[in-house]
Specification:
The chain is α/β, with parallel strands linked by helices. It is built from 18 helices and 25 strands. The strands form four sheets. The chain has an eight-stranded antiparallel beta sheet. Strand 9 and strand 10 form a beta hairpin. Helix 4 (about 125-140) crosses helix 5 (about 140-150).
């Protein structure tokens, strides 16, 4: 997930780009760059790390008069975070910025290298600018060259290109990744979302997939995917930056639930390949002489860790233990050097987890962190790190962070399993096939959300909730219960379904609400029996399953039943939406629940 800005006009362009990128920095902060054409000349600046580094680097530069400008803030997918891999990417006389992934970039790169093109970076993006210049050499028409270039691209992209061959234009194209155009008189803006242009543009057009064109002399020419020119129907641009950041949703948490499908694509890009999982950021030596794994985390991250432990032992065949970080430090743990110590944290600043990591480091263990924030304390303290690429999560109750943490653990499991030779090719292919379907399983339909909204009014009272599941659905039950109690302040507990009969079933009556996670692909008959036991005690049952359950008082039918993780992620969304709708009906501030903070930096 990366951020794009662009501008055509006479104002000072450097600050427009830097200010716009600041609004998009949550989309990526391992490197940033800008490129400007002024008086027919290209100028560019790049810096690794936070945007502040680029701002410092450009302190002595200012622009004046008419010009075109593009900028980008990056979260690495292809290639490590270096200045060479940072955008904008340069050809001989052109610059390009790009969000997304060009799936056929290696094929294009090979073709270009065969005709003598030299590549400086490890990125897929650089192929765009070189292909454009090759086409322009043959056609001697920059727009036709750009059109031919994007027709060759497969995958997701939002891209802006500027060139000395036509120094008063910005060429643009959008397919799969978000991009919009802002208007203010003769000034034209481009951005990945509304916030960089609020207060600058007055009207906006949201590009649709397949659309492309160019901006020049205060006008925009727009074409659809088959090359037919389109009329641009502009909309007024919101003036409330905070509301714009919510994209029309009532709460940030709601927005974050909806964007999980796209975020999951970002998490997977460059890692899920045709026949394997690849982590550029990991050295395979990290796993040499490792015979067990210990995972340490708190709260939601602890629940993703529990899920990961099931996967690691089942698929990678490596013993895995999960520890609650706040307890780990005080149990005098036995730490052996053949154990890989994994920490998980959304913020990378969780004090309990950080202190546990320091203990492991003092004991000489190799460490790996799964985190959403580069350069955070836990990332810096770890031997290696995998970033989840979830973007900023403003809702205190975590949603997309949990989803991406769990996905990283699943991908890591397959990576380790193949590295250690503990998974067959057929099983690996099955897992990769399921992984590719996950973004679709996370899509929230109007029909689903409307149903959960209607159901939620029945669950506002009573003496509590049981969320129950088996296997990997037990950690999901814990997470579902945590989401509900965090934002609704209602009592909720997650239990392994088979444990109900060992005590908790004593609470069962009509005022006990049971949320039953009943996947068809994993232990269905077992959990069905557990739910029947609760129903016989008059508990109120909400069943979530692809198969109708006649004893359920309420039923939400899921679509997927071929793979447990597909069912897991689909049910995850349902439990998040249920907590959201119950909380809203109770009149709570969903994004800022009482007594809680986003990053817990105290022990």
């Amino acid at each position: 997930m990366c951020g794009i800005v662009g501008y055509i006009g006479a104002k000072e362009k450097k600050n427009i780009l830097l200010d716009g990128l600041k609004e998009l920095e949550y989309r990526g902060y391992d490197s940033a760059g800008i490129a400007i054409i002024e008086n027919g000349e290209l100028k560019h600046f790049k810096a690794v790390g936070k945007l502040k580094n680029l701002r410092d680097k450009t302190k002595k530069y200012s622009s004046s008069g008419f010009g075109v400008a593009i900028g980008h803030t990056r979260w690495a997918t292809h290639g490590k975070p270096t200045e060479l891999n940072a955008h904008p990417h340069l050809g001989e006389y052109s610059f390009v910025v790009h969000n997304g992934i060009i799936e056929n970039y290696q094929e294009i790169k090979n073709e270009l290298e065969d005709v003598g093109v030299n590549f400086l970076s490890q990125t897929d993006t650089e192929t765009i600018v070189h292909l454009f210049e090759k086409n322009n050499t043959n056609l001697n028409n920059p727009f036709h060259a750009f059109k031919k270039t994007i027709s060759k691209l497969n995958g997701a992209y939002a891209t802006l290109l500027i060139t000395e061959a036509e120094p008063e234009s910005i060429f643009f194209a959008k397919n799969g990744s978000p991009m919009l155009i802002g208007f203010n008189g003769d000034e034209i803006y481009f951005a990945s979302s509304d916030t960089p242009i609020i207060g600058k543009a007055t009207e906006v057009y949201y590009l649709e997939d397949g659309e492309y064109g160019y901006a020049k002399n205060g006008e925009v020419k727009l074409f659809d995917s088959i090359g037919i020119e389109k009329e641009i129907i502009k909309k007024p641009l919101a003036t409330d930056k905070k509301m714009a950041q919510k994209d029309g949703f009532r709460f940030f948490m709601e927005k974050e639930i909806y964007e999980q499908s796209q975020v999951m694509n970002d998490c997977m890009i460059g890692r899920v390949l045709d026949n394997r999982i690849e982590f550029e950021e990991l050295d395979s030596n990290l796993f040499r002489d490792i015979n067990s794994i210990k995972i340490c985390a708190c709260g939601t991250s602890y629940h993703s860790a529990l899920t990961g432990a099931y996967l690691l032992e089942r698929l990678a065949k490596i013993p895995t233990q999960v520890e609650i970080a706040s307890e780990f430090r005080y149990k005098e743990p036995l730490l052996q050097k053949d154990t890989l110590f994994i920490t998980i944290s959304q913020s990378g600043e969780t004090a309990d987890t950080l202190e546990a990591l320091k203990m492991a480091n003092r004991a000489g263990l190799k460490s790996l962190t799964i985190c959403n924030v580069d350069n955070s304390s836990i990332v810096r303290e770890s031997s290696s790190a995998i970033l989840t690429r979830a973007g900023i999560e403003k809702g205190v109750a975590s949603t997309k962070a949990f989803a991406t943490q769990t996905m990283v653990l699943w991908m890591l499991t397959l990576y380790i399993a193949e590295l250690k030779g503990n998974i067959s090719k057929d099983r690996l292919d099955d897992e990769l096939h399921a992984i590719r379907k996950i973004p679709k399983a996370l899509i929230v339909t109007d029909r689903l959300h409307d149903k959960i909204h209607r159901l939620s009014k029945r669950y506002l009272h009573g003496h509590g909730f049981f969320f129950i599941g088996r296997d990997i659905f037990f950690p999901l039950a814990l997470e579902g219960a945590l989401k509900l109690k965090e934002i609704s302040y209602l009592h909720a507990e997650g239990y392994p379904a088979g444990e109900m009969k060992h005590g908790p079933i004593a609470l069962a009556d009509s005022e006990l609400f049971t949320i039953a996670l009943m996947p068809k692909s994993l232990h269905y008959d077992k959990i069905k029996s557990n739910v029947e036991e609760l129903s016989a005690r008059d508990a109120t049952i909400l069943a979530i399953s692809p198969e109708e359950f006649e004893l359920a008082d309420d039923f939400i039918k899921t679509k997927y039943s071929s793979h447990a993780m597909l069912e897991f992620f689909e049910m995850m969304v349902i439990t998040q939406l249920l907590a959201l709708e119950i909380s809203i009906r109770l009149g709570n501030d969903v994004d800022m629940p009482r007594n809680l903070a986003k990053s817990v930096t105290v022990e």
